[in-house]
Amino acid sequence: MDPIRRSLLGQLARLSAGAALVPLSSVANAGINQQPPRREGDPTKRYGMLIDLRQCIGCQACTVSCHIENAAPLGSFRTTVAQYEVEHQETGEVATFMLPRLCNHCENPPCVPVCPVEATFQRQDGIVVVDSDRCVGCAYCVNACPYDARFINERTQTADKCTFCAHRLEAGLLPACVESCVGGARIIGDMRDPESQISRMIAEHGDALMVLQPEKNTMPQVFYLGMDERFVTRPQAEPVALDVLDPHGKEMGYEFHH
Amino acid sequence: MNSTIELLAPRYDIAWYPWAVQYFFMIALSYATLWLAAPALVFGKQKWLPTARLALLACLATTLVAPVALLADLHQPLRFWHFYAYANSHSWMSVGSLILPLYVVGVIVLAWLAWRPALQANRQAPGIAGFIARWLSLGDSPTPRALLVLVGLCTLALSTGIMLYTGAEVAIVKARPLWNTVWLPPMFVATGFIAAAGLILVLNPVTGERSTVVSGQMLKVMLGACLVAGLVAGSWFLDGINADVGSVAAAMQSVRGSAEWRSTALWGGLTGLALFGAVLYLLSRPAPRRPALYAWTWVLGLVALHVGWMFRWVVLMDVQTVARHSAGFHHYGIPAGSSGILGIVGTFGLWLAAILLIDLFVPWRQARQGGSAADLSPVTPAPAHPAAQSAAENSEGTPSHG
C-alpha cells in the first residue's frame, strides 16, 4: 500500500470513536495483570536451558523419555520436536529443520498472573509449576501461553506442563529430556552460577542465541543456538499431515498432502 | 524465498469449550437486558415500562443460567470454591469471580423488588400460585421506590464490572493476537446489545405482548448498537492494515490466506450490514404502516441473536484453532457430548426452563417501579398515566399466571 493512502487510513483510524479506550488497555495489562510474587524454590538459583540445534537430529528421544518420566496422557506433550522440510526455491536443495519445544520458564510468564487461584506459580529459581491440587482447570493459562507449552491433562483434569523435571533436579539428576538427548543438544543449569556450562555457553555465544517470540515480551529462558530466525515466530509453513480415519471415525494415522 | 513444509507437530486441542461461548452469550444478554430495563425501572421513564417488563424477564433468566455454563467450562467444577479461598487479584478471571455473584444477587433482588407489588396482589389467588405469591412477597409492606432505584443503580454499576472483566479477560491474552486488542471489549458489549434487543423483539410476540412501542424502542437500540459495532470493527480493521507491527496486524497476518476465515468475515460483515439496513428501513417507514411491519420484527430479532452468538463463537472457538507456534490451523469438530452439542443445547434448554418457570409463577407482566399491591388493583378508576393504565390492562389478561 502506498504511503499516502496508508497515512490517510491512519488518520481515519485515529479519528474513529474508540481512541479514548486505548489508555484502558494499559490499565488492564499493567494494573491487574502483573506478576504475583514468586514462592518456593531456591532463591540463589535461576534455571534455564540452552538448546544447541546443531546437535539435534530430531530423534524424539526427549519426547519419549519425558512422556514416560512424567506420565503424560497419549497425545499430550510437555516437550516435543517439531520438524520442517525447507526447500530452496531456486536450487531445489532440501534441508530438515528441527525445533525442540518445551516450556520457556519465562522471566515474565504470561500464564502465571492469569491464574485465578494462583495454582500456577513461578518458583524463586525461575521454574514455573502447577499445583494440581489447587488448579480448577479453567484453562486460562493454556490459552495465555504463546508457546503451546501447556495442556489440560485429561487424566487429572488440571493444567499440565514442563517443570524442567524439578523433582529430578532436586534429587541431583538431570531432566529426562536432557539425560536422554543423544547429541547432548539440551543443556540445563543455574544461570546465576558463572561457572555452570549454561552460563559459559551464554557468555560465549551471546548474540547468536535466540528465543521464541521475543516480541511478546515474555523473556523466555530457553535459548536456541544455531537457530533460523524464520522459526522464531509462528513458521510460515504448509501443514501437510492429514488425519486418516477408519470407517468408525477413529484416527488411524497421518498421510501427507503431496 | 524458501518453501517450508511442517512434517511433524503435535495436534493442540482447544482449551475453552462451547460452554465459554454460552457463558459469554448469556452474560452479555443479561447485562444488556438489564440496561434496557433500567430506563423505566431505575430512571422512571414510563414510556419504557413495557420494554422493561420483557427485559427484566429476559435478564433474570439469562442471569440464572450464565453462571451454570461458566461452572461447566471448568475442568474441575467442584473446586469452584478455590476462587474464593485463593483469590488472585492479578487475574481478571479472579476479579470476575468476585463481581459475578454480587451481580447475580443484584439482579435477583432487583427483579424481586419490581415484581413484589404484583406478587402481593396475588396473595389471595387459589392454589400453588397463591402459595408462591405469599411465600415470595415476604409480607404486605409497600416496596419503597427509593430502594428499587438504589438496588438498580448498584446492579448497573456491577454490570459495567461484568462488561469490563469479560472483555479484559480475553483481550489481555497476548498469545492470541486476534484477542489481544482494545477493540474486543467494546465489540462484546455492542454485539451484546444487538442480541439483547433481538431477544426482546422475539419475546414481544412470543409472550403475547405484541407491543409496537417495544418494537420501535428495540429497533432504535439495535440501530445504535449496530452503528457502534460497525465503528469498532472498522477501527480494528483500519488499525490492522495501517500497522506492520502490533497485535491487530499480527491478528490479520495469522488468518491471511484462509478461505474459512475470509468467508467468516464476509458472513459477519454482510449479516451486520443487512441487519442495519433492515432496521433503518423499518424505522423510516411512515407511522401508519409500522404496526403491520413491526409484527415481523421477530425475524430481525432472530438474526440479531445469531449475530451476537456467532460473534462469540468465532472469537472464542474459531480463534483457538489458529495455531500459535506451528503451521496452519488446528482441526476442531464439535463433539456430541456435554463439552459440545449437548452443552450448547442444554444451556438453551435450561434458559427456556427458567423463563417458563418465571412465566408460570411470577406475574412479570405487572412489574413496576415499586409501590404496593393496592396500586395494581383493577377496581381503582382509570389511572392518569398511560403506563399504569397498561399495567391495569395487563392484569386483566393474566389470571392464567396466578
Automatic annotation (TrEMBL), chain A:
> Which branch of life, at top level?
Bacteria
Q: Which GO molecular function entries does the Swiss-Prot or TrEMBL record give?
A: 4 iron, 4 sulfur cluster binding; metal ion binding
Q: Which keywords appear in this protein's UniProt record, sorted alphabetically?
A: 4Fe-4S, Iron, Iron-sulfur, Metal-binding, Signal
Q: Quote the PROSITE patterns the UniProt record gives.
A: 4FE4S_FER_1, 4FE4S_FER_2, TAT
Q: Where is the 4Fe-4S ferredoxin-type domain?
A: 47-77, 126-155
Where does the signal peptide begin and end? 1-30
InterPro entries, per this entry?
Answer: 4Fe4S_Fe-S-bd, 4Fe4S_Fe_S_CS, DsrO-like, ET_IronSulfur_Cluster-Binding, TAT_signal
Which PANTHER family does the UniProt record give? PROTEIN NRFC (PTHR43177)
NCBIfam families noted in UniProt: DsrO
**Name by which UniProt lists this protein:** 4Fe-4S dicluster domain-containing protein
Which species is this record about?
Vreelandella zhuhanensis
Per the UniProt record, the lineage of the source organism begins with: Bacteria, Pseudomonadati, Pseudomonadota, Gammaproteobacteria, Oceanospirillales
TrEMBL record, chain B:
The parts of the chain that form a coiled coil are none
The protein's location, in the record's own words, is: Cell membrane
Cellular component aspect of the GO annotation:
plasma membrane
Region of interest (Disordered), residue spans: 373-402
* InterPro entries named among the record's database cross-references: Electron_transfer_protein, NrfD-like
Task: Enumerate composition-biased segments (Polar residues).
Answer: 393-402
Family, per entry: Belongs to the NrfD family.
Supply the name of the protein. Answer: Tetrathionate reductase
| Source organism of this protein record | Vreelandella zhuhanensis
